[in-house]
């Protein structure tokens, strides 16, 4: 979060980040609400559609994102201990994991699009209403989550730059700490998305 | 204090890195950002008023005047501009930005650069909305509520307008984060929670509502955009979607948004009444906590916008009951203001005229709110002008008059000039008459069954529509006098002293206009 140069307030910055995460929870909350309403309306179709998802790729992605969360957490500890080189390596690893996650996600998406399953497609429009809604929600929720991962990757790239240029130090680490909070949040959202789309068969 | 303070320059003269217009756009000074917001808000307000006058003009007599399609676009754009560009950002971004840090004894908000960013996002959102008016598809014709599924199928530039509102929402959220953090972290030594000025309390409650409600609108608007661009049919019955769900999500934000507009307005009134009654506010803690009460209960009443949309009876009864509950903290405020006035030696300056009018008009708005909050009258009145009248009494009579109160109360502090009292009071009188002629006739029209959003009507509604339209002209004349008076004072008014009204809050301890860093020394608050 942005703060005045003169009066650094680490706790204030953290307040700001937590408040921002509250708003993010409500933003995703709208999507989870739609999911709950439509799943209770079309339970059978939702369970049948979930079987179409690639459980193996989904599981790998879960592992990838969880590991990346570990990396960023250790990267923050490294900064606090003054080990900037290690921190940069770990932040780089987090970015790499984020990109791998997005790559796997893209493979899953394109595999479905190749089969003609995407919003407004002739194939999907012929399916039942429950299936149309399931795949609509799938694209929207994983898509907006993916966008958050992408933003996170870009922000961490800035953090690498800041760590290298001495803008982030063991005395002044709010930026990377708050980035870590954001990354964990993105991770947690996925922890909910994974069962809702892959495991409800 | 006075002698040291007069040595430092006002924030208008502060030389930053940039010159000219950039010294404003690039500024992180909360006061400069507040002034810029104020200018933008009043500009959009003027545009909104013009459109409102046009709506009234076209309803002056039965028969089509501006054409049905145009009529739909005009009332939609009137709503979008007034709601999303003027009254929702309204008090917090203009007066909140300028006075919140000063009132708690801080030099700026917690995140000054984030504050500047919200101003830019506001500009970006406003630009998108403006583009939607003139781009090829035609201005939005959905009403400001963007109800699905029409908003997904309509040919007009809904995507642009909705994206604009999404961006404006982002600006609103970030302002909320900034203010809540500021109030938690930057209070001057000794400024405990129950010593906070009441305006700050309401900004705090508003900040939380902005935080907790706006994201819901954001995601709902994203669904509309996705529906239009990619054909995702979450609200499209032909694809299994449920349009009622759109209404639920929309009002989950848009009802709390009413409190984003009205809570800080109440804060202004709570500042002005004690100053001009020459008394301490009656029941400080009750007034402070009732703001929190309104904010939290207000989150659970959205269903009363949808009594006629299709809901179970249980849900309707619960929503109706909670709606009545909101009247309790609102009533606490009204009674405390009136008790403050009781046995006070009231000074009849312009700001108190507007503040008292707020109490009068907001009470009418609030009490008619109880009528339509009850299930049976609601079913009769929901689709009529009664709602339009109620809405304008709360929004314009409430939030709008509070902004006029704030303009007259804080004008000397913000611009360092005094305005003449007489024209302000004449303007106020004409505005007050015009307002009631314009909107009270709508209560009667609605009660007699005149449906809202219609471009034409049967002859039997003609007399009251004519009265209402004449009222709109009186109202416009009043606004013009008020605006002319203040604009003239901006350039020709005599210099304002630090404390022209005898105010007790911190902004009156520093020169008018305030110096760049507000305080020479951080103030310490003692009893």
Pick out its properties.
heterodimer, A: 201 residues, mainly alpha, Four Helix Bundle (Hemerythrin (Met), subunit A), B: 527 residues, disordered N terminus
Descriptive overview:
- The complex is a heterodimer of chains A (201) and B (527).
- Helix content of chain A is 82%, strand content 0%.
- Chain A is an all-alpha fold.
- Chain A has one domain: Cytochrome c oxidase, subunit III, four-helix bundle (Four Helix Bundle (Hemerythrin (Met), subunit A), Up-down Bundle), CATH 1.20.120.
- In chain A, helix 2 crosses helix 6 and helix 3 packs antiparallel against helix 4.
- The N terminus of chain A is likely disordered.
- Chain B is mostly helical and 527 residues long.
- In chain B, helix 5 packs parallel to helix 15, helix 10 packs parallel to helix 12 and helix 13 runs parallel beside helix 16.
- The N terminus of chain B is likely disordered.
Topology, pairings included?
The complex is a heterodimer of chains A (201) and B (527).
Chain A: H1 10-41, H2 43-50, H3 55-80, H4 84-114, H5 122-126, H6 129-164, H7 174-199
Helix pairs in contact in A: 1-2, 1-6, 1-7, 2-6, 3-4, 3-7, 4-6, 6-7
Chain B: H1 2-7, H2 22-25, H3 30-58, H4 68-87, H5 90-103, H6 112-134, H7 150-153, H8 158-185, H9 198-230, H10 243-277, H11 284-297, H12 313-341, H13 350-373, H14 375-381, H15 385-415, H16 421-447, H17 462-492
* Backbone CA Rg of chain B: 23 Å
Shape of chain B: globular
CATH topology of chain B: Cytochrome C Oxidase, Chain A
CATH class of chain A: Mainly Alpha
Helix content of chain A: over 70%
Q: Could you say which structural class the secondary elements and strand pairing of chain A correspond to?
A: mainly alpha
Name the helicity range of chain B: 55-70%
- Provide the CATH superfamily of chain A: Cytochrome c oxidase, subunit III, four-helix bundle
CATH architecture identity of chain B:
Up-down Bundle
The unreliable regions of chain A are 1-6
Q: So what's the overall shape of chain A?
A: elongated
Under CATH, the homologous superfamily of chain B reads Cytochrome c oxidase-like, subunit I domain
Largest interface: A-B, 40 and 39 residues
């Amino acid at each position: 979060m942005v703060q005045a140069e003169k009066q650094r307030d680490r706790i204030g910055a953290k307040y700001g980040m937590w408040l921002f995460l509250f708003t993010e929870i409500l933003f995703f909350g709208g999507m989870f609400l739609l999911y709950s309403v439509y799943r209770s309306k079309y339970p059978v179709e939702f369970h049948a559609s979930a079987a179409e998802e690639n459980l193996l790729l989904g599981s790998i992605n879960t592992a990838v994102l969880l590991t990346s969360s570990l990396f960023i957490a250790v990267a923050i500890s490294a900064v606090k201990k003054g080990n900037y080189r290690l921190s940069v390596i770990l932040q780089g690893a987090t970015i790499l994991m984020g990109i791998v996650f997005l790559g796997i996600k893209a493979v899953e998406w394109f595999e479905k699009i190749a089969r003609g399953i995407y919003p407004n497609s002739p194939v999907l429009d012929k399916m039942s209403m429950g299936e149309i809604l399931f795949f609509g929600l799938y694209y929207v929720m994983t898509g907006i989550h993916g966008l958050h991962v992408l933003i996170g990757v870009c922000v961490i790239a800035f953090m690498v730059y800041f760590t290298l240029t001495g803008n982030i130090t063991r005395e002044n680490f709010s930026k990377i700490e708050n980035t870590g909070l954001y990354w964990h949040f993105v991770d947690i959202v996925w922890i909910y998305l994974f069962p809702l789309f892959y495991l409800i068969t | 204090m006075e002698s040291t303070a007069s040595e430092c320059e006002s924030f208008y003269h502060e030389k930053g890195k940039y010159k000219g217009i950039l010294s404003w756009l690039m500024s992180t000074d909360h006061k400069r950002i507040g002034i810029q917001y104020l200018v933008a808000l009043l500009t959009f307000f003027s545009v909104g008023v013009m459109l409102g006058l046009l709506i009234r003009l076209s309803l002056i007599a039965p028969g089509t005047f501006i054409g049905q399609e145009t009529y739909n676009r005009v009332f939609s754009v009137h709503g979008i501009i007034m709601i999303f560009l003027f009254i929702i950002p309204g008090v917090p971004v203009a007066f909140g930005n300028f006075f919140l840090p000063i009132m708690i004894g801080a030099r700026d908000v917690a995140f000054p650069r984030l504050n500047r960013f919200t101003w830019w996002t506001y500009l970006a959102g406003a630009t998108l909305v403006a583009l939607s008016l003139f781009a090829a598809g035609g201005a939005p014709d959905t009403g400001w509520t963007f109800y699905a599924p029409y908003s997904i199928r309509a040919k007009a530039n809904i995507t642009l307008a909705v994206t604009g509102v999404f961006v404006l929402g982002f600006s609103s959220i970030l302002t909320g984060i900034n203010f809540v953090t500021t109030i938690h972290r930057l209070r001057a030594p000794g400024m405990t929670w129950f010593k906070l000025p009441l305006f700050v309390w309401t900004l705090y409650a508003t900040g939380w509502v902005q935080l907790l409600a706006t994201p819901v609108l954001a995601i709902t608007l994203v669904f509309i955009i996705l529906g239009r661009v990619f054909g995702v049919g979450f609200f499209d019955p032909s694809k299994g979607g449920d349009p009622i769900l759109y209404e639920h999500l929309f009002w989950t934000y848009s009802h709390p948004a009413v409190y984003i507009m009205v809570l800080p307005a109440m804060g202004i009134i709570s500042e002005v009444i004690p100053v001009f009654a020459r008394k301490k506010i009656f029941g400080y803690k009750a007034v402070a906590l009732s703001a929190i009460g309104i904010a939290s209960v207000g989150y659970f009443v959205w269903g009363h916008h949808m009594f006629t949309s299709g809901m179970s009876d249980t849900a309707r009864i619960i929503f109706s009951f909670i709606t009545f509950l909101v009247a309790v903290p609102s009533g606490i405020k009204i009674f405390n203001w009136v008790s403050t006035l009781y046995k006070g030696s009231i000074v009849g300056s312009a700001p108190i005229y507007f503040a008292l009018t707020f109490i009068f008009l907001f009470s009418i708005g609030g009490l008619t709110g109880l009528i339509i909050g009850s299930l049976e009258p609601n079913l009769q009145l929901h689709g009529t002008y009664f709602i339009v009248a109620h809405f304008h009494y709360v929004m314009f009579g409430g939030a709008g008059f509070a902004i006029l109160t704030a303009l007259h109360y804080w004008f000397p502090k913000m611009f360092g000039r005094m305005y003449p009292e007489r024209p302000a009071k004449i303007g106020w009188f004409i505005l007050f008459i015009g307002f009631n002629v314009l909107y009270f006739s709508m209560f009667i029209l609605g009660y007699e069954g005149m449906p809202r959003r219609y471009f034409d009507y049967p002859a039997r509604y003609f007399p009251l529509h004519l009265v209402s339209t004449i009222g709109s002209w009186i109202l416009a004349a009043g606004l013009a006098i008020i605006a002319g008076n203040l604009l003239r004072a901006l350039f020709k008014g005599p210099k304002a002293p630090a404390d022209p009204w005898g105010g007790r809050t911190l902004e009156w301890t520093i020169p008018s206009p305030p110096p760049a860093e507000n305080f020479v020394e951080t103030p310490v608050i003692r009893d």
